[in-house]
Amino acid sequence: MVVCLSRAIEAKVKELDNEIKTTIIPSSYSGFNHFPQDKEKIKEEYKGKFLIGQVGALRKHKGQHITIKAAHLLQDLPDIHFLFLGDGPDRKELEEKAKNLTNVNFLGHKKNIGPYFAAFDLFIFPSLSEGLGSSILEAMQAGVPVLASHTGGIPDIIEHAVTGWLIEPGDPVQLAQAIRHLYSNPELRTQLATQASERLHKFSPQSIGKLYLELYRHIISSK
Q1: How do strand 50-55 and strand 104-108 relate by DSSP bridges?
Q2: Sheet containing 80-85: which strands, arranged edge to edge?
Q3: Fewer beta carbons within 10 Å, N or C terminal of the chain?
Q4: % of the chain exceeding 90 in pLDDT
Q5: What average pLDDT is seen over the chain?
Q6: Which domains are assigned to the chain?
Q7: What sign for the dihedral angle of Cα 26, 88, 48, 68?
Q8: 211: burial class by Cβ within 10 Å (0-12, 13-18, 19+)?
Q9: With contact defined as beta carbons under 8 Å apart, do 121 and 90 qualify?
Q10: Contact 174, 167 (CB under 8 A)
């Protein structure tokens, strides 16, 4: 039997049946297109701001409530601004938690999120649990440094302090501290984004397609 899994749950599968063979096939990036003028329009709208983006469904396990707590802790840095892209059942609750914050905007669902990824100065992904976190790949493909939780399949994508920055999930203080650190170190942000881009070929649609093709050929040949 061949199963496609992230490394985070491969060990658990082996505990159940050490005869199961696993093949790890991650998601690929989509490579959202954008026109430079669309990115510049966003930058102009938030002129002078250090834009921190979080993209995903507005659900508790995605960690937007953790980001909002961190935003409270970062109000002494007025040029930091958080943009939430996405919609979901927790939107009203999250907006209520952020109602007194001037450094947060909820932009809802966007048909074309490419310009936003390009406009972000930092992408954060503080999920409490996650299979992989494919939007991390989109941020990397856009050349944006990534700060994410060390949970689920995320460490399969990010090597801490090499291709991104990892923190423990569910800790708004640590999230705020990591944001401060990356905000005040532009050279580090550039280094993380560059090194992530250099390794991104492993997550290209072409590379992932080859992995699936090899898997299918293996299944067919083993029959």
Answers
A1: unpaired
A2: 104-108, 80-85, 50-55, 122-125, 146-149, 165-167
A3: C
A4: 66
A5: 88
A6: 1-28+204-223 (no CATH), 32-201 (3.40.50.2000)
A7: negative
A8: middle
A9: no
A10: yes
Half-sphere exposure of 215 (CA within 13 A, CB side): 17
Q: What is the pLDDT of residues 65-110, one digit of tens each?
A: 999 999 999 999 999 999 999 999 999 999 999 999 999 999 999 9
**Beta bridge partner(s), residue 50:** 80
184 vs 100, 135, 156, 187, CA distance in Å? 25, 24, 27, 9
Higher pLDDT, 28 or 87: 87
- Retrieve residue 37's tokens: 């003028």
Q: Are 53 and 116 in contact (CB under 8 A)?
A: yes
Q: For residue range 151-163, what is the model confidence (pLDDT) as tens digits?
A: 998 998 999 999 9
